[in-house]
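Technical note accompanying the year-one report. For the benefit of new consortium partners, we illustrate the data format agreed upon in the data management plan: each record pairs a sequence with a structure-token string. No post-processing was applied to the example shown here.
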Amino acid sequence: MSRAFAVDLRGMVDLLARHLYSGPRVYLRELLQNGVDAVHARQTQDAQAPASIRLIARGDTLEVIDTGVGLSAAEADELLATIGRSSKRDELTGRTDYIGRFGIGMLAAFMVAETIEVVSRSASGSPPVRWRGRDDGTFEIEEDPADIGDIPVGTRVRLHARPEAAHWMSTDTVTALATEYGELLPVDISVEVPVGQTVLPRRISRDHLPWQEEHPTPRAREQALVRYGESLFGFTPLGVIDLNVPEVGLTGVAFVLPSAVAPTGARHRVYVKRMLLGDRVDGLLPDWAFFVRAVVNADGLNPTASREQLHTDEVLVTAQEHLAAGLRSWATKALSEDTAFRGRFLRTHHLSLRALAAGDDEMLDLVAKTLPYQTTDGELTLSEVGERSGEILYAPTTEAFRRVADVARAQGLVVVNAGYVYDADVLARLSGRSGWRVRQLRVEDLVRALAPLDPSRELATLDGVAAAQAVLADADVDVLIRTFLPEDTAAVLLRDAEAEHQRDLAAERELADAAWGDVLAAFARPTASRQLVLNDANPLVRRLLGADRGEVFRAGVRTIHLSAVMRSGEVLRAAEATQLNDSLNVLLTAGLGAAPDEAP
């Protein structure tokens, strides 16, 4: 013999509160939803029927009165007492104007109420009915009760609060929740608010979606939307972006954030059929649209059972694709135009744009065309660098960029500073794209940009360069000589990434055991990790190379070398600082002569 399941109503309510809904506050949304659906159902029968919902809060009770289609006794018996049944189930086939689909709205009210009374008159002309349910799972139905008078078509739901939940039915709380959930509903919604000895209705709903209201000028519309964004999100947006996906009946606006945020998926305020789904809905806009907060209304999107997030289906995918295309089109246009807005946007969100470009191909192209980078030729986009030089050379760290900036600039060599977060990743990804030539700056690139000496001068400097090399034999540096600008730069210190790798291998080889040391030795390539390039255009260098190879010569070489080390952004080690101090003492003594008390 088959038997029906027994349902513990209190257990069901606890299940809803803990695992389906985010909290008790959604009870009012469910009641508003039922009222709006009832109004729509009546208007399909009579387009001139009134469309209103009144909320009356009295501290420990709440009444929700709608002018909807109402219920007959049979409908109340079937629908209000059956968990999971929707009063619009049959009508929902082929219909798209109802919000509810799960028939559990009334059940949600038990999260805050211990009893619920429903008094209703159906538009069909049947006698009125009263249904009273309790949180212990019992209910009763009375057809045409004598004490309800001649009520109009529609439904009145009266909640009696649980003792611990009375605050959910205070006037202030009901007004706040009704405004949050029902502000955009296309029904006249009001809350009766006590003012002194009188009660005044406060209208909650608005006639039009804010972004569809008419304004005398585009500027006036933008200002109104900025104020609306401030009221919703608490910030003054840099700009406003219209959103429109006719395929799913979606419209709305996105507000550009005025401050930088982490490049993570943003959450947005979403309405479905003008009922608030939630103010932290994710999965609608692409993850890379982190720089906006959006508010949208969609008639075609499908909510989850809790009606607090969006159901992932083909409709949502369609909306996502169109919204991403629209935002990308906006970004391309806004960032391609040389406007004050573009400057503010790039200053605010440049780091996030770099993070985005490191993982999104389409945004990589946009960033390459619009985002300015620090280069030795001023601020340029990567596209501009490629057009000027034929290829993009970059220094992987800010320190490396600073080492070569002055000399590279003077030689007309354009080098990009890729030392900020995500820059090296962006350039590495760009190097793999068709039509782009991108690579890290190598020592030989800069050396080639420095003019070689003519043969006679090079021959004349051979001994001096060799002597300088001998002085710096313990410094892991090769000494070269070139002529370059600026003339007041005596030398530049260049670091070779591969050579430094070899130096690290050598250090590890000294610490490793014999077997591992032999393995590392197989990768060794004898070479210095740095090159000190002396500038033959500098008068001091020319005099030094022609000087005697004595103490002053050695001190001069060490001073030029250590000055180049500091100019490259490095901090001198203790031994190097001592060498610099000793060298300066030698040079000062030679220049100033012996102190009086040291004279013969």
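Partners are asked to follow this layout when depositing records. The two ends are 128 Å apart (CA to CA).
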